[in-house]
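Figure S7 source data.
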Amino acid sequence: MNNVLSKMSPSITKMIRMDHTHVLSTFHKFEVDTSSVRKQAIVKTACLALEIHAQLEEEIFYPALQAVAGDNQVLHKAKPEHDEMKRLIAELRGLAPEDEAFDLKFHELMRDVMHHVADEETVLLPAAELLLKDRLGELGAQMTRRRLELAGPRVAEIAGNSALAMPAGTMLMAGGLLAGGYLLKRAFEQRRH
Ligand SMILES: [Fe+2]
Ligand SMILES: [Fe+2]
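Tokens for the predicted fe (ii) ion complex:
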């Protein structure tokens, strides 16, 4: 399995960019006149994907970069920004889509995440590609292994939310949200047998 993962996993920086792309495309499905059921599914999909992504970065990417990057201001504020994001996610979970504050809170989360993603993509990922260039593949495999541990037990919930959040025919996006959906699908099938 380890060898298979190493061969199938994208590099860690590619995987982080893929996660960002999928979360941003989920954001773009949220519109003022979207139905409440779909709004809720979009928010649940985005929040769970963000939580898993943040944990993977905190456990694997940030420490690896910290060890070689020295004093990097963007890296210093990355974890506090995740903490603020988690606070907004907790607030959103206490609201119903019909509440006036629901849209405002989700827009605030979107705005914060977009700034954070821009910093990562213009500062942290290029720094990693320079300073960790021999370790990007190994770290990518490590991230895929950990992602399976975190997301595997929640694959049914993820698939259910994604089915409601995405219009028919775009279910590939659901797998993409986890950037390793093919492995998760296999894990899910194995659990059912
Ligand atoms: Fe981050
Ligand atoms: Fe990120």
